[in-house]
């Protein structure tokens, strides 16, 4: 009987130890470290009990969210990147050639939490996408990312004269469609300027007098016919989905044959995403096309809006004050929901969330260093990005997410 009582007392003593010493210690530790995500399970052997001991670094990184982390200073970054001499850069993104003297904005590397971002391997990317098509469709921030990817890939092309615009067009923000051919890899990297993704149009009959034009939220842009068959599609939208570029300019929203002058801008954006969803379901092969919808790219106008003297030319380092970060844009909530709905429908759609990491980079804009010929009193550009620069990191995330899913064109 006494032996049985002793056996019973052993687990009782262990429980007593946990309740009186260990658990209060954990609670106290987390009160003192409320913002440390690892604090809940990061205490010595307890973390090993909760996290499976056999979990390898590669397994952890396969589930890593690359969107959250911090910017780390890295003096080697400019050496590893392309330069402004890349022939496919818009003059408005060549900040050094436009008078910016410092290069500090190029000396930062994004470090995700609890894992590492895979090194961008242009040669590997080119092999994976050989005989394929990459399509960027959206606003001019999408063109920013498109130009970045072209220059990143060109670093590993043996004969750079074999990379050219299909129709000989110069790279300019005024073109609605551009296609860069990588002849050695039978690859095209295309850009379509469609700021709303859906159609804008003239007035329908008997439109209200305040309406100057319409955004047809139920009709995708006619460029969409060219997107069919692409292997990777990167959509971007948001910068035109606001009151300043719609209702304040007399552009209202149309469904069918009627114009709705009371529809909220975000409701119109949601309906346009439903139109895109229907197009994806009806026009893209589930096993072939991989779709990314990039999140909203923050702007950093201070002391006024873009047309009210707003500026960003005094910023030379990333933001360090977390209280100055803007809240999550509503655009992102709608885009994320779109991606989730498509995943449920067994489509290869991912939400490429670059908003948080980009919010810090108030130092990366052209600001007053705009393209040659810009009037001295023109508004600063605090929405686009210098290249090389922040959009390179967006493409590193794109590449990392393609690696996660083992992407490779079927013809390679």
- Give the biggest beta sheet: 7 strands, mixed
- Give the helix proportion (percent range): 25-40%
Q: Tell me the strand order in the biggest sheet.
A: 4-5-6-3-9-12-13
- Total number of beta strands: 13
Put simply, the count of helices is: 10
- Class from helix and strand fractions: alpha/beta
Q: Write the element-wise H/E pattern from the N-terminal end onward.
A: HHHEHEHEHEEEEEEEEHEHEHH
Task: Indicate the low-confidence ranges by residue numbers.
Answer: 1-19, 21-60
Instruction: Label the overall shape.
Output: globular
Q: Report Rg.
A: 25 Å
Mean pLDDT: 86
Family: Belongs to the PC-esterase family. TBL subfamily.
GO cellular component, one term: membrane
Domain Trichome birefringence-like N-terminal: 63-116
Transmembrane segments: 12-32
What is this entry, summarized?
With 412 residues, this protein is an alpha/beta fold. The protein has 10 helices and 13 strands. Its main location: membrane.
